[in-house]
Amino acid sequence: MGTETRVLHAVVNMNRGGAETLIMNLYRRIDRKRLQFDFLTCREGVYDDEIRALGGVVHRVPWVTEAGPLGYARALDRFFAEHGHYRIVHAHMDRMSGWVLRAARRAGIPVRIAHSHNTKSEGNALIRLYKWASGRLIEANATDRFACSEAAAAWLFGGRASEAGSFATPSTAARSHSIRKSGGRRGPSSACAPGSLPSATSAGSARRRIMPS
After folding, report:
1. CA-wise closest residue to 135 among 100, 162, 169
2. What percent of the chain has pLDDT over 70?
């Protein structure tokens, strides 16, 4: 590992889902001498070998179905206690991102991104209740909030995300929307392409950004 900035993406696994494929498409195109992606996963994925070939690191912690809710939270705390060198954590786990970002905040990681890719939770009533409780951790632990649509933003972050101004995301040429709240003022903010991720020094201001999924 050199002097490049390393962003830790948190996912369940790196299989060919929509969010995972987007991340890989971006990963292949970034200047990896300046910016690298590492991955915190819970299960083996089809992209793991390619990630390693591109210079990324694939970390593994047990998923909640294997470790249980308490064991999963403890595994995340242990991981971030041992890997506190990361400055940016980008969680793509919808409501379950709350646990990742909570552990990252406890480890002192300054930039902690929650990214919503869905508009509903899966599973039975008990599972959905657990995920709802997990999502409640996002508000206190995320420094930045992204979403693939206004509906996805409203589902995970609440109705405030429906207010937006628009901008284009350089990496995808897609139309996007942004809300920025800093010092009580609202206005457009820059797109979060991999080359323009929020800096560690910007972690004190809360943002809501709507991004491609």
Report:
1. 100
2. 73
pLDDT digits (tens, 9 = 90+) for 37-84: 999 999 999 999 999 999 999 999 999 999 999 999 999 999 999 999
User: Cα–Cα distance between 76 and 33 in angstroms, integer?
Assistant: 28
Buried b (16+ CB within 10 A) or exposed e, 137-173: bbeebbbbbbbbbebbbbbbbeeebeebeebebebee
How deeply is 33 buried, as exposed, middle or buried, from its count of CB atoms within 10 A (0-12, 13-18, 19+)?
Answer: exposed
Q: Which fold would CATH assign to domain 5-210?
A: Rossmann fold (3.40.50)
Q: Which two tokens stand for residue 117?
A: 């890719």
Nearest by Cα to 199 from 89, 111, 97: 111
**What's the rounded Cα separation, in Å, for the pair 70 and 44?**
22
pLDDT in tens, 203-213: 333 344 444 44
